[in-house]
Amino acid sequence: MDKIKEMVRIAYGALEEKKGENICVIDISGISPLADYFIITNGNSDSQVKALVDNVEEKMHEAGHSQIQREGMRSGNWVLLDYGDIVVHVFDRENRDFYHLEHIWSDGRKIDNLDEL
Fold first, then answer.
1. Count of C-beta atoms within a 10 Å radius of residue 20
2. Would you place residue 73 in the very low, low, confident or very high pLDDT band (cuts 50, 70, 90)?
3. How far is CA 17 from CA 1, 8, 9, 21, in A?
């Protein structure tokens, strides 16, 4: 399996495991040099946001994927996990609705099924 697709599947699974809401995968490879995929989800509380982030970090580390940067953990309302080829955004519900990244990156291809990777 392609390394980038494996990373997407691992991060998605980690978010799903901790009950991330409305997990969205957007292929931005054709429109941005920032990354190939954005993965966006939200939790219902600061503690769930933290659990989502912790689980992604743990699963990615176990699989040997290095994190480049993490931003926003102190606030607990939007945490960005940068793995180079993929970027994981974990919001609280209010900030996800406010920033609406799915709309901002609507030129990307939304992946409705991981088999489409």
1. 27
2. confident
3. 21, 14, 12, 11
Look at the pTM and tell me if it is higher than 0.90: yes
- Total residue count of the chain as it appears in this document: 117
Which value, in Å, is the radius of gyration of the alpha carbons in the chain? 13
Sign of CA dihedral 91, 58, 71, 101: negative
Tell the residue number behind the tokens 């940068």, with chain if given.
82
Q: Please, which residues bridge with residue 41 across strands?
A: 90
Contact call for residues 26 and 8 (beta carbons, < 8 A): no
SS3 assignment, position 89: strand
Kindly list the structural domains of the chain, giving each domain's residue range(s) and its CATH number in brackets, ordered by start: 3-116 (3.30.460.10)
How far is the C-alpha of 104 from the C-alpha of 49, rounded, in Å?
22
Tokens at residue 71, please? 């931003």
Report yes or no: 16 and 43 within 8 Å, Cβ to Cβ.
no
Q: Report phi then psi at 26, rounded to 5.
A: -125, 125
